[in-house]
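Subject: Sanity check before I submit

Could someone independently write out the structure tokens for this chain? I want to compare against mine line by line before I put it in a report. The sequence has 82 residues.
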Amino acid sequence: MTERVDQIVQTLIDIGTRHDRTPAQVAVAWILDHEEVTAPILGADRTEHVDEIFDAADWRLTPQSRAKLDEVSKTDRPIKYA
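---
Independent answer below. Compare away.
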């Protein structure tokens, strides 16, 4: 893991701890909070993973948590679409 990825994961853990959510639930809520994402594709290998994802669908990030995740994941590289 790079230092940047480690920082993103730690932020997911910290926000999850504060809101009694798993890091995966925080990540899903963060994805769903992006209006440009119309259909997130999430892979679930086990029933527990599906339940965890559904639990995230009814929860919203606070504006502060969204801003923190956006900040730690920001990149200077332009996004290229094929």
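---
OP: Matches mine. For the report I'm noting this point. Residues 3-72 form one domain.
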